[in-house]
Design goal:
By secondary structure, this protein is of the alpha/beta class. It has a single domain, classed as P-loop containing nucleotide triphosphate hydrolases (Rossmann fold, 3-Layer(aba) Sandwich), CATH 3.40.50.300. The chain has 9 helices and 5 strands; from the N terminus they run βαβαααβαβαααβα. The termini are close together. Bound molecules: shikimate-3-phosphate. The site of shikimate-3-phosphate has 10 residues, from loops.
């Protein structure tokens, strides 16, 4: 297994914010799978979904997963909410789930100063009923995969990052 930390969880749970705090307080390098995909394609995720469809996007995630396994060490990898489906996830590193109830995630996004932008850039959040179904489908799978679970509800990204580093240290 590689010595990365791979952060999974539903859209909007705060994977990026927690990752940014973790790298301030550790020697990990930050990598974000959506950012990699956007640079590979030179397009925003939203445009990739619109122009080439979700299946194509999932193929790009697979390429990224293979590359992470083969070439990446000592990194904190934050992922898109569907990246957990990659078969080689366990080989990439310790899997940390950021967990929160669906309603708390939506509240968190809506209260954000950039709420509109955050909702707009996520095609799979455009229909909240469908997003809730997706959450209910995915949550048991996230829990099954996770080596470490952090309940992030009502906690700051800083506190989550501290908890994450403490738990990873104990786990290793
Ligand atoms: C997706 C989550 C998004 C992005 C894409 C698909 C998903 O990332 O990868 O829109 O399937 O849950 P975030 O979890 O960062 O929003």
């Amino acid at each position: 297994m590689n010595d990365n930390i791979i952060v999974i969880g539903f859209m909007g749970v705060g994977k990026g914010s927690v990752a940014r705090e973790v790298i301030k307080n550790s020697n990990y390098i930050a990598i974000d799978t959506d950012d990699l995909i956007e640079s590979m394609e030179n397009k925003k995720i939203k445009s990739i979904f619109e122009e080439s469809g979700e299946e194509y996007f999932r193929k790009l995630e697979k390429r990224v997963a293979k590359w992470l396994e083969k070439s990446v060490q000592n990194s904190l990898v934050s992922t898109g909410g569907g990246f957990y489906k990659q078969k080689n996830l366990k080989k990439i590193g310790i899997i940390v789930l950021l967990d929160s109830p669906f309603e708390a995630i939506i509240k968190r996004i809506k209260e954000h100063p950039n709420a509109e932008k955050k909702l707009k850039k996520r095609p799979l959040l455009s229909d909240l009923k469908a997003a809730k179904r997706l959450y209910n489908e995915r949550r048991p799978e996230y829990l099954k995969l996770a080596d470490i679970v952090i309940n992030v509800t009502d906690k700051s990204a800083f506190d989550c990052s501290k908890e994450l580093l403490k738990k990873v240290e104990k786990y290793a």
